[in-house]
Design a protein that fits this description.
Blueprint lengths: L18 H4 L4 H5 L9 H9 L11 E2 L4 H11 L5 E2 L3 H4 L7 E5 L13 H18 L9 E4 L3 H15 L11 E2 L1 H4 L4 E7 L7 H5 L3 E4 L2 E4 H7 L2 E9 L1 H4 L3 H10 L1
Helix pairs in contact: 6-7
């Protein structure tokens, strides 16, 4: 007897094999649901028993996100079944919008598509504002974190911050700026998600973990990124480009 707890709508383990290399053709293995070595045992068992209430049960109480942040992923990815615990911070009001989208048109030249200087500058601006608002209680491990899809963009943001702060000991220089894969399981009061992408072909990379379930399009990367935030979520990207992905039109509309 055992209990497995997980969320197949968040990111799976990173697998380097391509689909043709991980495909399983053995009939006996296919019979037990093993058709692709990239799928975990959790996913295989879920596929087999997800409609059996004696085997599968969905945990519906979440204690991380403020209700305004939880609204979109709840409706888009969890069928509206998530509820707040609730904790005090989940129900708090605010003079500031809990979820914002900042439209950034790429303007500065970059030698690689994996670096977006315009977004790096805007993200640095947002970080400086958060620092000014919370410097008395600022904690690099709790106050704010930044998620971007490319490691090159991480370096670009840190470079801009270092230039503006001009001191190696400033707390903002010690915040975590990382990819969504490495942020899974973490949380911050503020999360800034910089989409970074500047070209149409990059949208495929952003949406590569998307799948369909019960009539919903589940974007694992977007889901993880948005659900890391406890109190405020700031999305930064090129609205016109991102709107080419139907799923992204919904959070862009939600954020206003």
């Amino acid at each position: 007897r055992f209990v497995m707890i997980g969320d197949h709508k968040q990111l799976p383990a990173v697998v380097q094999q391509r689909s043709r290399e991980s495909r399983v053709d053995d009939p006996s293995l296919n019979a037990i649901g093993l058709s692709d070595c990239r799928n975990s045992m959790f996913e295989r068992l879920l596929a087999k028993y997800r409609h059996n209430p004696d085997v599968c049960y969905m945990l519906t109480r979440q204690g991380r996100m403020h209700r305004d942040i939880a609204h979109f992923p709840n409706v888009a990815f969890y069928g509206g079944k998530l509820q707040e615990v609730p904790l005090e911070h989940q129900l708090a009001g605010s003079a500031h919008s809990r979820v914002r989208f900042v439209d950034v048109q790429p303007q500065n030249f970059s030698q690689t598509d994996k670096v977006n200087p315009s977004e790096a500058s805007v993200i640095a601006d947002e970080l400086m504002l958060i620092w000014q608002r919370h410097q008395q209680e600022f904690d690099p491990e709790e106050t704010v974190g930044v998620i971007v899809p490319y490691r090159n963009q991480i370096s670009a943001i840190r470079t801009v911050l270092a230039e503006r702060l001009n001191t190696p000991d400033h707390p903002l220089l010690h915040i975590t700026i990382d990819t969504v894969e490495r942020y899974q399981g973490s949380q911050r009061n503020y999360i800034i998600y910089g989409f970074t992408v500047q070209k149409v072909y990059q949208l495929r990379f952003l949406t590569e973990t998307t799948f369909q379930e019960d009539g919903m399009t589940i974007d694992r990367k977007l889901n993880v990124a948005m659900t890391r935030a406890r109190e405020y979520l700031i999305l930064v990207g090129h609205r016109t480009l991102l709107s080419r992905v139907p799923l992204y039109q919904r959070p862009l509309h939600y954020c206003g």
